[in-house]
Amino acid sequence: MEEFEPKIIAFLCNWCSYAGADLAGTSRIQYAPNVRVIRVMCSGRVDPTFVIKALRAGADGVLIGGCHFGDCHYMEGNYKTARRVALLKKMLGQLGIEEERVWLEWISAAEGSHFAQVINDITAKVKELGPFARQNNS
Amino acid sequence: MVKLKLALYWAATCGGCDVAVLDTNEKILDIVNIADIVFWPIAMDFKRHHVEAMEDKSIDVCLFNGAVRNSELEDIAKLLRAKSKTMVAFGSCACFGGIPSLANLTNRREIFERAYVEAPSNVNPERVFPKTKTKVSEGELELPEFYDTVLALGQVVPVEYFVPGCPPPVDLILKVVDALATNQLPPPGATIAAEKTLCDECPRKKEEKRITKIYRPHEIIPDPERCLLEQGIICMGPATRGGCGARCIEANMPCRGCFGPPTGVYDQGAKMLSALASIYDVKDEKEIARMVEEVLDPAGTFYRFGMSTSLLQRKRM
Hints:
The complex is a heterodimer of chains A (138) and B (317). Chain A is α/β, with parallel strands linked by helices. Chain A has helices spanning 17-26, 48-56, 77-94, 112-129; strands at residues 8-13, 35-40, 61-66, 102-106. By secondary structure, chain B is of the alpha/beta class. Chain B has 3 domains: 4-99 and 157-181, NADH:ubiquinone oxidoreductase-like, 20kDa subunit (Rossmann fold, 3-Layer(aba) Sandwich); 106-142, no CATH class; 198-302, no CATH class. Helix content of chain B is 30%, strand content 15%. Chain B has 12 helices and 9 strands. Chain B has a 5-stranded parallel sheet with strand order 2-1-3-5-9, with helices on both faces. A two-stranded antiparallel sheet of chain B has the order 4-8. A two-stranded antiparallel ribbon of chain B has the order 6-7. Chain B is globular, with a radius of gyration of 22 Å. The chains are: A alpha/beta (138), B alpha/beta (317). Chain A binds chain B through residues 47-49, 51-53, 55-56, 69, 79-80, 82-84, 86-88, 90-91, 94-97, 134-135, 137-138, and chain B through 105, 107-108, 147-149, 151, 266-267, 269-271, 273-274, 276-278, 280, 282-283, 285, 288-289, 291-292, 295, 297-300, 302, 311-312, 314-317.
């Protein structure tokens, strides 16, 4: 059987994390090819619905990348994200979804290598967890 | 005028929706003026075989309340669908799964284990569980199959209209009856309630939404004038469809979300979670952890009436 290759959806904020991913690319840093990037203006734009919908639509893991605390282009967006993701993880836990399927990372525009590292880490972790195939118990 | 033929049925439900129909008081006479009731198990002596004997599409309107949680309910939903021109999901259970759909946080095995073994009133050392078929000397006995996942009516058969509420308020029921009588129903697929959120019609004073502590309703006596969410009580208003007349709010109790998500929202729970986390004004990680602790049961609170139609529908097990 072929090795399971997880699909990771990454919501990256325009101002920090997306630029960080860009830097990883221009610096030619190698990282796992499992990630599909969706650029959003701010990590605060990531509605918890997006995370749940990504999982429903076939993603095995979701990464939300935002600016470090204090760096948000819109002042407070990333604080809201931090609170939403914390609460979302608790709720997903009740719904039988492992905590490590949803990641929140602060990645600045200068942290290309950190971005590559995060992608490698989440890919390895989600590979360990296996596919998020919805079991149909009905 | 030829009278309409009306059927009412209850599936996985508490019976409150049927009582709500009776709560129309003397207006029930108006209903009987325009409609002949041909099936209503809670109030009238018609049996299933009477429905089976009817011609297809001979019932004009079926008000179906309750969720679908076993094979018998699925069968009768399909039977009534075949016999009815218009199917109405009546009440939150039929619309979204309702309170019974909280059982989607567990499954049949766990429910049976609790109900027939663990519950303190049980004595069941032989672990006898209900079976769909049991042989006895007189022959074979049958029980409906209990499903792992509670379904909303619309997940079993096509539904024309949705009338939410736990139970639907009387004025909404009368609105439906009136629309039926005058043949002025909206296009199929419509939810008969408001389009916007409850907050949109809430009479309370709204100032700045910033909280630093969540109170459960019994822990605080709320100011009856001011937005409950601003006072730290989880009120589902921002993620719930309006049109209920803010009955709970008028009684100084928070909205629990029985009208389901407003138009354009896919997932009521995710939206409410998002709204609550947004207004909880803390930045420190420890305080964020405290917020997470204060929301004791996020899934049960945010999806209280709608596990079945939520994006994830049930717990992964």
